[in-house]
């Protein structure tokens, strides 16, 4: 017994990286979640940098050249003019209000998630259940809001906007409503493409986050973590959920505010 | 892991521990306040480089609070903090590279 202990002690004297301990004081699963999130951060950074670059390559709206703002293929739209609709308030111009609500929902669900993690530290099964449920509801609320926003973006406004197209060697003017990956009533098609890609990729993350949260809720409710003696899984999925919130903070700034 | 959980177990049997959520709500109010301020600036300030830089700084502050407090990176060991934060220098490199070279990429596309 005593000889084994001395052998381990001797090895530990060399370096903390020689094995037999946790140099980063975090479990394998938590570390891997961190490094996965780092790689995911690169993906989202690349998407947002692409947005910046493509936007920069387009004409910016200038009141002195273009007059009063209207949707045009000639320049990049002002985001607050595009995203100004709110459900049940048809016809009112409420710039960024709905995005603000979505931001609030996501921050709030991040808070309930961290409260679930905190309850996990106290091994309080009921509290973990309660806060995980709120987090799941928040996730669904956000996804629902995004579905509404996408629908509004795709369907478009009542008036639509006039754009010129090259058809059989001639320029033709057409009124287009809403946006898809090819045409876009709000501005250059690239604007709609980036909207679909960036918010869509983020929405996919939220969706898988909700699925993971449901899994955690199920395991908590059936007492899996209580039997295991710790709630570290809540922490790991919590990291993912906060990351999704973090990405939204950046998307909100670079897509909607600037 | 097993040894880890063992030491935490007695806490669960010894009745409910008091929730300690003061710091969580403080972080929430900071995030809420900054977001509200962003809205205020979006509607009162003319767009330009100054407004963009204010938005970027406020976003980074929010990111600091989410990663530091909610994801609790502040409480991890230094090696872990740096192994997450330092690689993000590549993002800064990408932005600088495209600011310097982006023009020529757009010309040859």
UniProtKB/TrEMBL annotation, chain A:
Subcellular locations according to the entry: Cell membrane
Coiled-coil segments: none
Domain Heme-copper oxidase subunit III family profile positions: 1-258
InterPro entries: Cyt_c/ubiquinol_Oxase_su3 (IPR024791), Cyt_c_oxidase-like_su3 (IPR000298), Cyt_c_oxidase_su3-like_sf (IPR035973), Cyt_c_oxidase_su3_a-hlx (IPR013833)
Keywords, comma-separated and alphabetical: Cell membrane, Membrane, Transmembrane, Transmembrane helix
Domain of life: Bacteria
Residue intervals passing through the bilayer: 31-54, 96-119, 131-148, 194-218, 239-257
Keyword Ligase: no
Main location: membrane
Topology term for the membrane: Multi-pass membrane protein
Classification via Gene3D superfamilies: Cytochrome c oxidase, subunit III, four-helix bundle
Similarity-based family: Belongs to the cytochrome c oxidase subunit 3 family.
Listed PANTHER family: CYTOCHROME BO(3) UBIQUINOL OXIDASE SUBUNIT 3 (PTHR11403:SF2), CYTOCHROME C OXIDASE SUBUNIT III (PTHR11403)
Stated name of the protein: Cytochrome c oxidase subunit 3
Naturally occurring in which organism (per UniProt): Rhodocytophaga aerolata
Automatic annotation (TrEMBL), chain B:
Chief location: membrane
Segments traversing the membrane: 23-43, 49-68, 80-100
Pfam families reported in the protein's UniProt record: COX4_pro
Recorded superkingdom: Bacteria
Key words of the record: Cell membrane, Membrane, Transmembrane, Transmembrane helix
Source organism of the structure: Rhodocytophaga aerolata
Topology versus the membrane: Multi-pass membrane protein
Protein name stated in the entry: Cytochrome C oxidase subunit IV family protein
Localization per record: Cell membrane
